[in-house]
Amino acid sequence: MKISYINTVEDMVALNIKTKPSSASRTATIFFIILIPLVAILSFIYDYYYLSKNFFYWYIIEFIFCVLWIIFYPKSVDILFKAILIFKFKKLNFEYLTVELSDEGITKSSTSSTYKFEWNSVLNIISTKDHIFIYIKPNIGYSIPLSSFSSNDEKDSFTQYFYRHVNKT
């Protein structure tokens, strides 16, 4: 079973967005979601007890800032991450890829390289409405756009063959 396609910038961004974050990036995200509001709350307490109790409007502004930060920080990081990925991937020249499924495993080839992976090296498969993402390592994977299949039957037979072999291992 073989499929040929060419990835786009959008395909690569989608692949990287679906990649599991490392423990360091998860820790950094949690740190920044908690740290900024914590500093604001501590300054609120400090202002209240040590400066003047007449800063009521300032306290409201600090509270609103904390709430908005908790709500919008993760979304703003996602937007920034997508923008950085698009900027980096626009510099690449994408070439045609061929993915072939066999009883031995997966062969991904292009004009410049060929990689073979056994079925047991596949860590995860994520299917979305637009892609199939195949992860060989937690942060290394391949994107197959569903638009590259000529029909729904071809797509269904490809994914069934894929899942049947991955589930064996």
TrEMBL record:
Residues 101-158 form the YcxB-like C-terminal domain. Keywords: Membrane, Transmembrane, Transmembrane helix. The chain crosses the membrane at residues 28-49, 55-73. Pfam families: YcxB. InterPro entries: YcxB-like_C. It comes from the Bacteria. This is YcxB family protein.
